[in-house]
C-alpha cells in the first residue's frame, strides 16, 4: 500500500474498478468510493458478478472515471481487493465515510434500498493499492 494515495482520488467522485473473469478478461465497473485509512472503500451489491470475480481473484486495477465509466486522465493503479465481512466497526466507519462524501445521495440510496429490501445485500470492498507498479497501463 502506498504511504499516500494520489491526491486526485480525494477530489474524484467515481473510480473504475477493474476485476477479472476466469479467462482473464478485464471488466470495468464505475463505482462510488471513499478514502479510509489509506485505502479505497466501495459499497456494492454482495451478489454482483464483480464480487464473485474479486472473491476468485483479488487482483484489481482502479482509475478515476466519470459516472459512465469513461477514464478521466488518470492512470490505472494496481491493487488488491477484499470483501469486508465480520468486521462491524470497519463496516460502520466505511459507511460513515461514504455518507460524508456523497451526503444526501448516499442516504437516499440507502433509504430506497431499504424499502426495496436490497440493503441487506450490500457489501463493503476494501482496495489496497500497490507500492510498486502503480501505472499498469
Features:
137 residues; alpha+beta; Pnp Oxidase, Chain A; seven-stranded antiparallel beta sheet; 7 strands; 30% helix
Describe this structure in words.
This protein has 137 residues and is of the alpha+beta class. It has one domain: Roll (Pnp Oxidase, Chain A). The chain has helices at 8-11, 49-56, 88-116; strands spanning 14-20, 26-32, 34-36, 39-45, 59-65, 77-84, 122-129. It has a 7-stranded antiparallel sheet, with helices on both faces. The relative contact order is 0.23.
Helices and strands, with pairings:
Layout: H1 8-11, E1 14-20, E2 26-32, E3 34-36, E4 39-45, H2 49-56, E5 59-65, E6 77-84, H3 88-116, E7 122-129
Antiparallel strand pairs: 1-2, 1-5, 3-4, 4-7, 5-6, 6-7
Radius of gyration equals 14 Å
Overall pLDDT confidence: 86
Distance between the termini: 19 Å
What is the 3D form? globular
- The CATH topology corresponds to Pnp Oxidase, Chain A
Major β-sheet annotation: 7 strands, antiparallel
User: Helix content range of the residues, please?
Assistant: 25-40%
Low-confidence stretches: none
| Structural category | alpha+beta
Q: How are helices and strands ordered from N to C? A: HEEEEHEEHE
What is the class in the CATH system?
Answer: Mainly Beta
Query: What is the annotated CATH architecture?
Result: Roll
Any idea how many domains? Answer: 1
Adjacency order of strands in the biggest sheet: 2-1-5-6-7-4-3
The CATH superfamily is identified as: Electron Transport, Fmn-binding Protein, Chain A
What would a concise description of this structure say?
The protein is an alpha+beta fold.
Amino acid at each position: 500500500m502506498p504511504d499516500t494515495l494520489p491526491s486526485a482520488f480525494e477530489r474524484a467522485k467515481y473510480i473504475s474498478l477493474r476485476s477479472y473473469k476466469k479467462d482473464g478478461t478485464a471488466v470495468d465497473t464505475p463505482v462510488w468510493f471513499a478514502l479510509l485509512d489509506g485505502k479505497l472503500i466501495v459499497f456494492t451489491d454482495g451478489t454482483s458478478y464483480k464480487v464473485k470475480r474479486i472473491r476468485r481473484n483479488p487482483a484489481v486495477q482502479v482509475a478515476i472515471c466519470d459516472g459512465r465509466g469513461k477514464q478521466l486522465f488518470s492512470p490505472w493503479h494496481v491493487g488488491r481487493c477484499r470483501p469486508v465481512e465480520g468486521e462491524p466497526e470497519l463496516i460502520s466507519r466505511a459507511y460513515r465515510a461514504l455518507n460524508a462524501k456523497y451526503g444526501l445521495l448516499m442516504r437516499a440510496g440507502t433509504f430506497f434500498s431499504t424499502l426495496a429490501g436490497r440493503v441487506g445485500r450490500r457489501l463493503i470492498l476494501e482496495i489496497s493499492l500497490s507500492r510498486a507498479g502503480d501505472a499498469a497501463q
